[in-house]
Amino acid sequence: MTPPQSVVLRRGDSGPAVAAVCERLVLSGDLPGGPGHTDGFGEPVYDERVEQAVKSFQQRRGLIVDGVVGRSTYAVLDGARWALGDRVLRYVPEHFVEGDDVVALQTRLAELGFTPGKVDGLHGPNTDAALRAFQAAVGMTPDGTVGPETMRAFAGLRRSVSGGSANALREREQIRRSGYSLSGRTIVLDAGHGGADSGAEGHGGLVESRLALDLARRVEGRLSAHGVSVVFTRTETTEGGSDEERASFANSCDADLVISLHTDHAESGSAHGAATYFYGHPDSHGRADWSVVGEHFADLLLREVVARTGLTDCRSHARTWPLLRRTRMPAVRLDFGYLSHEGDAKALADPYTLDHIAEAVVVALQRVYLGESDTARTGVLRLDDLRRHLETMRAQQVRAGRTVG
Question: pTM score, two decimals?
């Protein structure tokens, strides 16, 4: 079971909860030989060796690498011990079962042509619907339970989707069919932190939560001008809650895409630059649990930001952070500089830099939906150019329609 939200295990702790973590680290291969030191009651101690094993697991699974076992790390660690068929799976409302066996189930359903939604390792309503559709298609009672009979049905079938990940093919096709226009889309803007949590603080009195909200407003103004419906996860007077709650909110909005805005901080003060993050396991490129649209947008967004601001390119990275994992739609996080770095902080204190970043967000987003029609070089498109380009495309479509008619 996943521990309550308040439970956090770190170096120096001991007891049954630490023993459970060590047991799972042994199963995952990150703690060979088991724990070392024990306390006066014979329980394992969360020592340096256990901390390094936790960091190793977090690194491989795309989690925040801090050596601390909180709710998210424990849930993924606990789920890593299950292979498909090890336990009976079924949909439980309000408490989604999660684990590697759910990832395998979702991947198998997608390969067979049944859409479980995002391959995220969470047994939610979309996975349940896809499973029941599969069971009905093979003549089984569609009870939504993965037991011996369902496993035998899987074993007797071959995948129906070839040429790459079924999830990747589906994501690309959804983008293609949705058209190139931004008008009518719903975008969720997640300004990081908020409320009592101000996030990172740095040079010049800059505060992450304020900067993120300032940038979100600048992005909103530009997106609204293109007919986009923009929804904020928080404002100055409201809190967005945990990443899981923000993801749930985005899902309730049936958004097309989620953009999370943050800055970074490093104790040394020397780290600098911008980075983007999308959903995927760092060592699983090409597998079902990898968002190709998220990766594409993250890459475009970072290149546009770097070209317009001069911030150092810290690359795009696959991660399984809750906001990226739990949203049904593609989600991308942008870390637009280090407040602990004097140069980055000076740039971000200039409103023109935030305007350039906001413009980069809109242009990158539009380029995602342009698809094969996107022939512009990075950093050269301005919003006025974008409008003229879209007007030209609309005129060409009208002319093509008249010719066909």
Answer: 0.83
